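Hi there. Long-time user, first ticket. I'm pasting a complex I've been working with (about 593 residues overall). I'd like to know whether the download I got is complete or cut off, because the file seemed smaller than I expected. Thanks.
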Amino acid sequence: MTTETVLRAVGVTKRFGDLPVLRGIDLTVTAGEVVCLMGPSGSGKSTFLRCVNQLERPDGGYLEVRSELLGWKRRGDTLRELSHREIARQRRGIGMVFQRFNLFPHLTVLQNVTEAPVRTRALPRAEAERTARELLERVGLAEKGNAYPGQLSGGQQQRVAIARSLATRPFLMLFDEPTSALDPELVGEVLAVMRTLAEQGMTMIVVTHEAGFARDVADRIVFMDGGVIVEEGPPARLLSAPSHPRTKDFLARVTAAHGGPPVPSTETARTPDTVDTADTADTAEKGQR
Amino acid sequence: MYGNDAAAALGLRPVRRRHWGRWASAVIIVLLLAAVVRAFATGAIEWDVVGEYLTADMILEGLANTAVITAAAMLLGVLVGILIAVLRLSANPVANAVAAGYVWFFRGVPVLLQLLIWYNLALVFPSIGVPGLWEGSTVEVMTPFMATLLGLGLHQSAYTAEIVRGGILAVDRGQTEAALSLALPSGAVFGRIVLPQAMRVIIPPLGNEFISTLKTSSLAAVVTYGELLQSAQLVYYRNNRVIELLIVVAVWYLAVVSVLAIGQYAVERRYGRGFTPTRDASGPGVRGRARGGVRARKTMGSEA
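Hi, the file is complete. Here it is re-exported in full:
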């Protein structure tokens, strides 16, 4: 595995109005690495991921992808803001998969996958379609090219979304809670595709509550809470022997409702819905301690 | 039928409820309708004159002019309307305010007044043009056609702008984000992803606007544009068959409106692609912020 740095975040902060969401995130991801971002809702995981793809702009700190500053260009001793076109160029190497799939409902599955390579003139249409069919085959949906997203199940839609973001040949894939909107029985098929992708050496940052997936696939788990990275490390250590009380709290809550062993290893391990209110529960519990 | 099956199962003869109220109201309605038809049939209307003028050259010419001005005004209205809607939604505060003011003005001034203002523009500006490029006498430029086109088209654009704006706002923000994350050029984000989906919301009210513009074009008679009503009036000034010619006009309007309604249906189907067969997790309704995770999962379960 090479040690090329794909992503470097330095002191990234972000606030929504009066609410600080990120309070100084430092993170480095190297090529081929799979990093799972875990933590309670509202801890800033998704916001951080969206900063990497410039869907949000950090208030402080900076991000570099492949040593290139995101959103800004250094010129002499000035820092110039990039144009939309230049930002689009920076996004080209980064694929993003959303919680709610966000497939284009008015386009067929094949058109969803060919749209980006065709419109960005990366590939001629015929070649884009050939590539798209290959990608759909890789996610197990070769026969669904002419279907509309509305005719697919949630799991199938998410697999199309993965194929769509792979169509621009990204070197970094971002997954924002890719299985959180899925029925439990559909989670496995999406995780299987992601697992294959990881095995093929894709650099991935995955925001997830799937402890089982994180343990099996991640090289590193980064645990966030309250807009900061609380703890990070290899999954074996972080999931079975977390050193920080907040990590312990969270993992206990994630697995408690399951009634199973501390860390479920099945692919379909579900996050209990109580995580949605984890923020308030968290502060309440800390008050008691 | 359920009742019959139940009766058969029990070996009895079913007696269905009698809807006396339905029968009575149906009879009254039919009688009233017959009275109206009879009144018109026996009134002072010469129906063969109606039939005769239905396809008179003068009337057909007026009909063609009505069709042309409606199509042209609608085209202008939609193009300007989309532009105004985009300005209205832009982050630029000046563009935003100007667009809001535009809608305020052109939606607020009665269309009849707007037609008269455009037609009499020469009173304000004797000549118009682009300095250094081209100049002309306003009276020559502002023909009845031009005045009608601008009056109807710009009035329409103010309404269209609001309809388009609503349609664009109805498209889920995630669609824009997905398009941006795929590095689509900004033109494609709007033109390929947002606008086609907004069209689904825009088309039905825009169809109504089309029909409305068609009918409003009859006002163009005041600026002597030779549309359908104006043509009919010219005929009945000569032959005094007032009601007959007005009926001819009404028949043609109804005919064209019917054709437009069929067209609207076809266009709606075109932009409904991907939405018709099944409602699902990516469809409207289930979208929204991550908060509704539980609800979203339930909805998806119903489709599996």
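A couple of notes from our side: The longest strand of chain A covers residues 5-16. Residues 258-289 of chain A have pLDDT under 50 and may be disordered.
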